[in-house]
Each structure stands twice: as C-alpha cells, then as structure tokens.
Amino acid sequence: MQRLSRRVLGRASERTRLVCAPAIEGFTICHKTEVIKNTLNPVWQPFTIPVRALCNGDYDRTVKVDVYDWDRDGSHDFIGEFTTSYRELSRGQSQFNVTQLNFVVAIDFTASNGNPSQPTSLHYMNPYQMNAYAMALKAVGEIIQDYDSDKLFPAYGFGAKLPPDGKISHAFPLNSDNEKPNCVGIEGVLEAYFQSLRNVQLYGPTNFAPVIGQVARSAADVTDGSQYFVLLMITDGVISDMVQTKEAVVNASSLPMSIIIVGVGPAEFDAMEELDGDEVRVSSRGRFAERDIVQFVPFRDYIDRSGNQVLSMARLAKDVLAEIPEQLLSFMKSRGIEPRPALPASSTPPAHMRI
Length: 355
Description:
By secondary structure, the chain is of the alpha+beta class. It folds into two domains: 13-96 and 342-354, no CATH class; 100-334, Rossmann fold (3-Layer(aba) Sandwich), CATH 3.40.50. It is globular, with a radius of gyration of 23 Å. Strands 7, 8, 11, 12, 14, 15 and 18 form a seven-stranded mixed sheet that branches. It is 26% helix and 27% strand.
C-alpha cells in the first residue's frame, strides 16, 4: 500500500488532480480527485484503484498524473504532470534517488534601508506588521522549505558593520555563528534577522559577489546532481560591485545553483534586470553565462492595495519560484545527468494501489 501526496508551487487557489491510465491512443482518466481550495500545499485524500484499471496488470506501463488549477466555469488551468509506473509507486518514495534542495538566504543590511527603529525604514521592526524584507522572506521561504528535507537554512547578511570592532562584512551569518550559519526553518531565519538588526550597524556598500561566491563554493563541491542550491537575496538598491557580481554569476552558471533576487523599496532596479538574463545572457570578460540562473522581481509589484497580503505574497512566491524547475533541469541536462532508476523490485506489488 502506498500513499502519495502531490504538492506544486503556485498561488493559493483550487487544485485537483487526475490519475490517467494508458489507452490505445494517449491516456484515459481512471481517477479524478476532489478539489482542494485556498492552499499553496494541497494534500488530497488517499484513494484506492484496482491495478487492472490503472495499468491492466502491466506493472511497468506508464501512468500519468496531471494537476490542474480548478475554475468554476470549467476552463481549468494546467499546472503540471509527472509520469511513473505502478511498479515504481509500489516501491515507495524512500527507494528513489532524489535531488536535495538547499535553500540559502542573504539580506541587505546597507544604510540606504533606513534606521530600523524608524517607520520609514524598509527594516522597520513594527511589532504589529512584518516589514517588506520579512514578508518577502516568509512568502518565498515557506514554499521552498517544503523541498529542503532538513529545514536548516544558512542565512547571511551583507553590507553591515559588525560588533565589536565595526568591521564591514558582506557575508556574515545572521545567527552570529561562523561555523554553523544554519537557522532552523523560516521562523528561525526571521528570528536571526531581527536579532541582527538589533546588533549590527547598517552601512554599505551593496556588494553581491561575496555571498554569491560563498554559495557557489558549496555548490562546486556537489556537481553530481544529488544537491541543488537556491540563493534568495533581498535588497533595496543599486549593486555597488556590478562587475564582480556579473563574474560571480557567470562562474556560478556552471554549478547546481539558482539565484532569486527580490528588490524592495522605490529604487530603480535596472542592474537586477540585467542580471536576470531573460533577454540577454549575462557576460563577464568575454564569457557568457552557461545558463540563465537569476530570477529578479520587484516587491512593489506585489503589494495589494486592498490589504489582501495573503494572495499578493502567494503571487510573489509563484513568480520568483517559477523558473527554478527549468533551471534545475537545465543544469542536469548540461551535465548529462539522467534520473537515476529505483532499486529492483523484491516482490510482486499488491493487486490494489492506494494513492
């Protein structure tokens, strides 16, 4: 018996899934689930399908699962799909080789954000409402943390003067532990972020290259497809080390990593658009990035004037994470890394599959 729940990245909405069995031409629907409403992480009720209906007794026959965004008028939006077989499902997820996602956070602590004790600051520590940095971190982090198995997130700050000697750092651990910069869950990252605001002096400049390089060094140690790194950078302004940052991005483009940049505040973010590389691939010293690994979004585009922050933050998470699957696949393809098969079956699967 095997229980399987499907989870997809997307906006809070209404989701349903179809389990499709092979037919003479294409697939035929053999089960349609209930609709799960108003959630980013739908979990469907388990159900049972006779093996004969699922694959006509052929344990290696392809089975397809489709996920749709349900609409009342019947024009359901296709979200995604995956294919498997009854034999693979019956073995259980623990026997599959999967890629581990490693989520890393970097937050801008430069003085241009304003004094955190003042309401005009982008880092304002309002006891009743999260600031833009915290909202962006929570929106993206709460989705991606479900794909990071250990829930331990290295979290860094850049552009601050650190106690006790006032040394400027562009990659300091938010928890003040250089040996173990990991925070437990997104709540742990938020706690360390607020604690850092109390302890460090916002300064500058806004240098991206050091923290990108730090994550890239970790990614360079595991290029076999077993791990993939996602760096979330939240910043308010113009990059001071653009030349070095472009070189860091070009170097990182050959590694298993992606970079998400969320721009907060009213500044112009032309440099971020250049790094995004959707139109023209980033280059440095005559070398072009092997892959597009940067996704940039301005936070101000997701502020809901009606006050519905739940939906607006869900849209933010959807858009910043939209390119991660393709970026991960592009790395695997560039290195010729194929999905690794499951272990051979040791016994005949049961006659009914509970999914």
